[in-house]
Amino acid sequence: MRFLHLLSVTLVAVLLLSGCDEKEPTVNSIPVEVADVSNIHHPSAQHFTSGQPTQTQLQAFNELGVTKVINLRSHEEMASIDESTWAANLGMSYHHIPVAGGDDLTREKVAEFHRVMSANEGEKTLLHCASSNRVGALTALRAAWFQGASKEEALAKGREYGLRSLEPMVEKLLSE
Fold first, then answer.
1. Using an 8 Å Cβ cutoff, are 51 and 39 in contact?
2. Residue 48 belongs to domain spanning
3. Is residue 24 a part of any domain in this protein?
């Protein structure tokens, strides 16, 4: 009986330790360094999406290899946050595309988002707004309008990137 108990404990220990040497996070796994960022998602190897990061959290993203920040929060939301300076001090490129809400989901805003996203494909990028909902909305619209995705594919991609309450508006825009 004692032998079986010892064997069980050893087997559990081996199973628990076997995952400890993972070096590179996989898609959808959230590195512990940024796990406390609001609404964090890791939908692709190059992209993190989230709500507003703090200065310390932005530094943690930088230490994970993120080199570009795309901020979709409105000017009013950013009035007391100097994120562009934080990013510059870390050597990160910074792009601010203000999207105040559903009324800003225009072809012009999505085209600007597409240009910024396309300019440095393959770079590790943090895309954020207040909750990741606008990130998901622009990602879905970009997928359909600029990348040839079907409506269903675009909405699925948007959800992966944080689309929630703006989904009915995005669905309507994709139906026009």
1. yes
2. 30-175
3. no
Please state, as a whole number, how many other Cβ atoms lie within 10 Å of the Cβ of residue 89.
13
pLDDT, tens only, 152-168: 999 999 999 999 999 99
92: left (phi over 0), alpha (psi -120 to 50) or beta: beta
Whether 141 is in a domain gets the answer yes
For 88, residues 6+ apart whose C-beta sits below 8 A from its C-beta are 94
Q: Is 140 helix (H, G, I), strand (E, B) or coil?
A: helix
Joined together, the tokens standing for residue 2 give 């004692």
Look at residue 29 in the predicted model and tell me its pLDDT.
86
Three-class secondary structure of residue 51 per DSSP: coil
Q: For position 28, what pLDDT does the model report?
A: 64
Domain of 55, CATH number, reads 3.90.190.10
Conformational region of residue 39, where left means phi above 0, alpha means psi within -120 to 50, and beta covers everything else: left
Q: How many domains does the chain have?
A: 1
Q: H or E element: which one contains 95?
A: strand 93-96
In a domain, 160, yes or no: yes
